[in-house]
Design brief:
With 96 residues, the chain is mainly α. It contains 3 helices and no strands.
């Protein structure tokens, strides 16, 4: 593979990474909106909004369905951060 072919292939792969990034951002925002709906329903019903058992179930499921190459422990860390940041969003809105 000459330099030009290599650069073309690298650019193609970078374009694919950019598309995956767009999909991740869309999916994370959709997840946050769904969680907001759940919290609104729970708040209206007067039930506890934070459910640590449910959070642990999510984290366990993430590890179970992770095909790799990201290590299970790293995937769990990533999801813990996602869960915490979405909860932070709700705290900032005064709904948690």
């Amino acid at each position: 593979m000459d330099n030009s072919e290599m650069q073309g292939k690298v650019q193609e792969l970078r374009d694919r990474v950019d598309e995956v990034d767009r999909e991740l951002i869309r999916a994370l925002n959709e997840r946050a909106r769904i969680v907001q709906e759940i919290m609104a329903i729970k708040s209206e019903a007067g039930t506890s909004i934070y459910d640590p058992k449910r959070e642990e179930e999510i984290l366990q499921r993430v590890v179970e369905i992770n095909p790799g190459p990201i290590y299970d422990s790293s995937m769990r860390d990533i999801y813990e951060l996602i869960l915490h940041r979405i909860r932070d969003l709700e705290i900032q809105r005064g709904e948690f």
